[in-house]
Protein 1
Amino acid sequence: MNNSEETIEDAILAFTMGETRDALDILDKLIKENPDSIDVWRALAEVRLSNGQLDQAEEACSKALELNPDDLTSVVSLARILVNKGDKEGAEAASAKARVLGWKEELADENE
């Protein structure tokens, strides 16, 4: 596990322990240091979603999807964010994409 992964784990632990501000501070610092880290954007999206910061969660998730448009985890997060925002059509589109990506992963695993 590299330093960035350990720090992400620290942020997730802080959030789990109810220290949301600390978790967000850690993730915001990591974003500045590693703006191309999909793992950091994913974690930030999830913490912001859980904290009810839907617009910021969607923005973080969008950044992750800019880095990898076919990232299943980020697409699922986007669907959850859009459901919470009341965007039924967007959530349905993201969910459909997640299903397709999930099937592709299953097929790839079967062919290995």
Protein 2
Amino acid sequence: METERRMVCIFCGGRAKLTRVNDLKVVSCPFCKRETELDTYQDMFDNWIDEIRKED
């Protein structure tokens, strides 16, 4: 079963799609053409947020 949700792309700020196909979740952006597995995407986002917090 395939479901789709939308979110902001952390690479370009475009509107990315969160797609689930079977057990694999992928964030894909039609603007910058990047596809990232959701777990990796979440780790990258968490690291980015941590860097922002350190600056404050």
